[in-house]
């Protein structure tokens, strides 16, 4: 299965449209949050309309810059993966949207305790299977969570969850400058960077193998 992994669109409709014209061979699109830049339903609808044009299954979560109307729209579209286990084309995907509080207040944040509670119990029944974790906030102390100043700002709850439950692939975002493909425990960790900056990733997933590469428009 070929995956198209994007995050942090921040209402850059032109970049998403360009991506839809460039990448036509994927089987599943995973969107790790921040469809909008402090926007709501109306802004998200412009994004969703282009997502439909890919004509492939899509799973998405909200980011910290997305307001509640974004979540409502994603749920109505049947593509919202936050706080649940969703199976697409036989692949289980668990989602967690939002982020820890940022230096600048944003609409969708949670505490470490809330993140742990949201994720608790979701992997039940998928032990031994290949599965994907889709999170906006990267795990702490990883290649995907380092800001420009060099500080790690990821979630310890997400990191612990990954180490305990070992998803085959973790798709994240939020920290634009930490676009990377790396190992985290037994998982492959992908931060595609911000699509606003023209960055995204593709991955091959299945049959006991997973690989990914970063790309640029």
From TrEMBL:
InterPro entries, A to Z: Calcineurin-like_PHP_lpxH, Metallo-depent_PP-like
Gene3D superfamilies in alphabetical order: 3.60.21.10
Calcineurin-like phosphoesterase domain boundaries: 1-199
Family: Belongs to the metallophosphoesterase superfamily. YfcE family.
UniProt cross-references to PANTHER family, sorted A to Z: CALCINEURIN-LIKE PHOSPHOESTERASE DOMAIN-CONTAINING PROTEIN (PTHR37523:SF1), METALLOPHOSPHOESTERASE (PTHR37523)
Protein name per its UniProtKB record: Calcineurin-like phosphoesterase domain-containing protein
Gene source species: Marispirochaeta aestuarii
Lineage: Bacteria, Pseudomonadati, Spirochaetota, Spirochaetia, Spirochaetales
